[in-house]
Write a structure and sequence with these properties.
about 220 residues, eight-stranded parallel β-sheet, binds pyridoxal-5'-phosphate, alpha/beta
Length: about 220
């Protein structure tokens, strides 16, 4: 219990220390590893945004807190989302970090439209074309972009990415920097400045991500260890 409090305080202090716009940074507590008791503890420590990567489990957790009458929780979907699972989360998810295929976009758009919602999403980018990772390859992204922009019930608000798989701090930094440059470039050419969010940085690299302009950091392990 105490260590969660201390860890969250440390992360919040790091946001102030490493970001040039700390008031605009959202800390997503990645709760895929933990049960609702632990999540309740996180809420008590003032973090109100949960990140999950399994649609049905996220729905169960959402229902639990809804039944308790807890308001103000934000739900972010951060994992690879299968098309046939969109239905489990569409009515309550606040941000989908992992839009990485046109077929998925079409499904989200359809489901959102059925309930009169405009769904905020991030484009997940696999900048270094790593086979172990999900996310749009750049060529695919550019191929799909005009179609994505036509979808009326999807609101693309930014990009999500991961650093390349390495211990080399300078390569990690370069990865985040590239994602920022891509966001700025897409903003100029296609989005007219509408892309605001950069979801990058996890337990091991969030300080670098903050220095490179992250607006959303996704932290799991560091909260619980
Ligand atoms: C699990 C996960 C995280 C959290 O990773 P930690 O190293 O535990 O902080 C962040 N983002 C995504 C997409 C994840 O799947």
């Amino acid at each position: 219990m105490m260590k969660i409090k201390r860890n969250i305080e440390e992360i919040k202090a790091d946001i102030k220390k490493y970001s040039t716009f700390p008031e605009n940074v959202v800390l997503v507590a990645v709760t895929k590893y933990v049960d609702i008791e632990m999540m309740d503890n996180i809420l008590k420590n003032g973090v109100m945004v949960f990140g999950e990567n399994k649609a049905q489990l996220m729905r169960e957790k959402f229902e639990h807190f809804k039944n308790l009458g807890k308001n103000g929780i934000k739900w972010h979907f951060i994992g690879n989302l299968q098309k046939n699972k969109v239905k489990y989360i569409i009515d309550f998810v606040d941000l989908i970090h992992s839009l990485n295929k046109l077929s998925l976009a079409n499904e989200i758009d359809k489901r959102a439209s059925q309930i009169g919602k405009i769904q905020d999403v991030l484009l997940e980018v696999n900048l270094f074309e790593e086979e172990s990772k999900e996310g749009y390859l750049l060529a695919e992204l550019y191929k799909d972009l005009s179609k994505l922009l036509e979808l009326k019930n999807i609101n693309i608000v930014g990009l999500m990415g991961m650093a390349p798989f390495t211990d080399n701090v300078e390569l990690i930094r370069e990865g985040f920097r590239k994602l920022k440059i891509l966001k700025d470039d897409l903003n100029k050419k296609y989005f007219n400045g509408k892309l605001k969010e950069l979801s990058m940085g996890m337990s091991n690299d969030y300080k670098i991500a903050l220095e490179e302009g992250a607006t959303i950091i996704r932290i799991g392990t560091k909260i619980y260890s």
